[in-house]
Amino acid sequence: MEDKFMLMIPGPTPVPERVLLAQAQHLIGHRSGEFSQLMGEVVEGLKWLHQTQNDVLMLSASGTGAMEAGIINVLSVGDRVLVGSNGKFGDRWVKVCQAFGLKVDVIEAEWGKPLDPNAFKAALEADTEKAIKAVLVTHSETSTGVLNDLQTIAAHVKTHGEALILVDAVTSLGACSVPVDEWGLDVVASGSQKGYMIPPGLGFVTMSDRAWQAYERSDIPKFYFDLGPYRKSAAKNMTPFTPPVSLFFAIQVALKMMQDEGLENIFARHARLQQAIREAMKALGLPLFTADDVASPAVTAVMPQSVEAEQIRSVMKQEFDIALAGGQDHLKGKIFRIGHLGFVSDRDILTAVAALEATLAKLGANGFTPGAGLMAAQSVLTAA
To answer: What CATH homologous superfamily does 262-381 map to?
Structure first.
């Protein structure tokens, strides 16, 4: 049957019908009063979601573009930075920093394991000359489904006194609480196609007062991603360059939906869906790639044993029109990932688990009881 495709990947994520329809509106001029009013409403919603009074700037870019913008606007060539790397995206920030001539010290953890906050503490305490100018952390490591302890790491950075903290919150914003002001986060980057429930194309960057002070010293060349003009334009609810107007219509509606649901309810829903998926995988005898206490509410990584991960993904797509994500780099073919962030409901989880059970049966998987995963998920989702 056509038109029944279902995304269960960590991005892009499903988009609500009313958000899709919002994009069908006739365009308006991006220098018009109507657009200025639209942007003003969107900015207020973004500050609500980020739990901040800082600037929240919007770029025509992916989450990677937003993160790059954060890096190049607060640092200078030759600056020493500390980068946490325990997955594909931590590795990416190392490469981005090196590309812009920064001196990179890496704090690593095995893929599937969390970054150790004490390793950051030790490195920052050893920096008596205050040479470290920034610490970069991926909050939710999408490649493995690990949620790093951002709050504790941020506290260590604050104690250092000199370093800024730059955060990749691409799959954590909108899936779990990221209280920017409370945790003292200086730069936070995210992308529209994740917890925001809209298509790809918008990147978001928060900038603290400390980040803007660093901006004044930054000497890395930049033009389109120079956040100064964005801040100046944002003060008038405008953008320095032509924005994707249709996506502004979309984010306006999506933020209204999120505000109607409420922050705590959003976070509780993601936690419930995460638990339902994880309990279902355990009941089916499918090993989880990350431990429960460090699991991301956005995505769950699974390492099947008796059947191949890519076979599971293939059957799920061909037979049930459900897309699961695969592994990346050395995990390619070894794991599959189930996204459960953004516009995902209890029904989606039950549908995905039921289809996965049928897939395992079709592939002749060993060691699972048909119906066990569905019962485990139901138990979580129907609990008071």
So the answer is: Aspartate Aminotransferase, domain 1 (3.90.1150.10)
